[in-house]
Each structure stands twice: as C-alpha cells, then as structure tokens.
Specification:
159 residues, alpha+beta, five-stranded antiparallel sheet, 5 strands, globular
Length: 159
C-alpha cells in the first residue's frame, strides 16, 4: 500500500466530543477514518483505536466538561493520541488488583502496554487535563529508521 505525500503532510485531526457514553464509538469511527486515509496497517489501526477508546472512556467516566480528541502521525510514523477534558490533572493509579474480577480499572494498563510512552498533563483552556499516548509504527516507514513497538503486547505476566 502506498502512502501519498499529501497524507503524510496532513496527518493531524481533532474532534470535539459530547460528554456522554456515545463519545467512544464516535471517536473510534472518526479515528478509523483518519487511519484509513493515512494508510495505517491493521495492527497500527487496532492499537490506536484501542488507546483512543480507553482515553476517551476515561474522560467520560472520570471527568466533567468538554472533551476533545486529537490524532496525529509524525514523519517517523508514530501515532500521537491525545484526549483533553475538564477533569483533574492527576489520574488515579492504574494498578488493578491482580485478583480483581471487575472489568474496570485496566484502561491505563492497556495503554501502557500498547504505547511507546504515555502520560498526563495540563491542557489549554477550556480544558484542564490531557491524557496522551505515543504509539510507535509496526512496519518500516519510507521516511527512515524508527523505534518498533515493544515485543510484549499482552497483559499476561512474564514467566
């Protein structure tokens, strides 16, 4: 698959989201369309969409106020996911109890496993908080060398 020069230059998009449960499916559809335009691989698309949904879901569940999602790809092929919201600037610890059977509380652990790096910072007004993640490309990029996604891609503990 060939990536057009135009797609490489225009690899940034943002979306305002309503603060409601429908924000995650809306962000997923929007991000999938952008990734298709940018010729992302299936694995890159799956990883970016999962990270986007985790960050948007956290914004809907744990914050108030406006939400804005940002997605970009840099010249090295890394994907940058950012979600701005009106919530607190320091998220709760992402350390679920190993014996906890609850489905909640693992979003940032998943983000940690899929991203090369991630974090949380202040966002510009009218937002208060920004959750972000950078995902390294999974295939060689014509622009040159880069860091590959870490081999550990599961949530299973190392033996």
């Amino acid at each position: 698959m060939t990536t057009s020069l135009t797609a490489r230059r225009r690899a940034r998009t943002s979306l305002h989201l309503a603060h409601r449960p429908s924000a995650c499916p809306r962000a997923r559809t929007w991000a999938a369309e952008a990734l298709t335009r940018w010729d992302a691989t299936d694995e890159e698309t799956d990883d970016v969409l999962l990270v986007m949904c985790e960050l948007v879901t956290n914004a809907v569940i744990h914050t108030t106020g406006p939400i804005r999602a940002h997605l970009s790809r840099d010249q090295a092929g890394c994907y940058h996911v950012q979600v701005d919201d009106g919530g607190p600037t320091v998220p709760p610890a992402a350390r679920p109890d190993e014996h906890d059977s609850d489905e909640h509380g693992r979003g940032l652990v998943i983000v940690d496993h899929l991203s090369a790096r991630h974090g949380h910072s202040r966002a510009p007004y009218p937002y208060r908080s920004r959750a972000w993640a950078v995902l390294a490309p999974t295939t060689p990029h014509p622009a040159g060398p880069r860091t590959l996604v870490p081999a550990a891609r599961t949530l299973e503990p190392a033996s």
